[in-house]
Amino acid sequence: MKYKLSLILLLLTSATFAQDSTFARRMVDTLTSKQFWGRGYTNDGMGKAAAFIAHEFKSYGIKPMSGKGFMQPFSFNVNTFPGKMELVINGNTLIPGRDFIVGPESKGVAGKGDLFQKDSVTFIEGQKRIVLTLKDKLTWSVSQQVADYTSIEIDKKALKEVPINVSVNIENKFVEAFEANNVCGLVKGTVKPDSVIIITAHYDHLGGMGKETYFPGANDNASGVSLLLSLAKYYAAHPQPYTMAFICFAGEEAGILGSKFFTENPLIPLNNVKFLVNTDLAGTGEDGITVVNATIYPKQFELLKQINAQGNYLVKVVPRGKAANSDHYWFTEKGVPAFFFYTMGGIKAYHDVFDVSKTLPLNKYNSLFKLMNGFVTALQQ
């Protein structure tokens, strides 16, 4: 593919494109609120988030990708924790999320017993099949299956002495065929509507662990959804020569499932997609961005770097090779050229209860918007 790039024109044009960063903050505040309960598998968190995004699309003038509406339904199995989440070690009650997390594959368990020390960080209650592990940092995830034991990770700082005994009451619920939706919309191209550029981000996160604790997921990935919505709002008001498509995926945290389903059941022909840009962890950026698939598509990566250098947007644009670490992956496997970028620097909160809106800087939000807009413009030259 040959690109004709007028950097001066791009700079003059994209300088006026950035949405006010207050839009980004409002979106991140909303998506991380208690109402959406971590955009996961309890309290209808994921369903509420999908409905919110679809409403935003409609309000901007985005059209559904399918005649059936914005939603593309699919399902998968998932282990959830909607109820009791209690842990007492040596008579001391620990706080879910902050002091401990339950392994996402764990079965529910209730009871108490003495602990056997296996090694310096592992303690076992054999009768109830409970495994406690001491950790420097607690990081949660999602499981599609249930084990025959209960694993619990404890922050080392939460204990003042070696664990001797345990009292636990944890409830799990295994959900077969959990119903989720990709949220898909587009703005028809004015010149070449059969040529498509897609912007994607996953909107799901980890949800809740018990009745009192949820994982807000500000950087991962309310930040990326916010950037996508900002771009969608702009392109709805400023249609491009190519069709601009926007997909917010569900099921990313459970194994990039929403994007896999879409590529197996595409709502638009994949051979019409000229390029896809996936954004995840877009809330920082003082150390620049890393671009996955940069070495696979060197011409497009060089173009991205040129736009960044001329605009002086980000301090670094770092190349990375192919990786199955977000929703771009299944498109690449189907032959769709795609980049996945994530920001670097700033906060270290990730898959924990500390990934909250108030500590997410969003300090490179406008720069990311301008860079993405310049890249989209250049792809259509």
TrEMBL record:
Organism: Mucilaginibacter aquatilis
SUPFAM superfamilies, per database record: Zn-dependent exopeptidases (SSF53187)
GO terms, biological process: proteolysis
Molecular-function GO term, any one: metalloexopeptidase activity
Classification of source organism: Bacteria, Pseudomonadati, Bacteroidota, Sphingobacteriia, Sphingobacteriales
Positions of the Peptidase M28 domain: 182-371
Pfam families: Peptidase_M28 (PF04389)
Protein name per UniProt: M28 family peptidase
Signal peptide per UniProt: 1-18
Keyword list, A-Z: Signal
Cited InterPro entries: M28_fam, Peptidase_M28
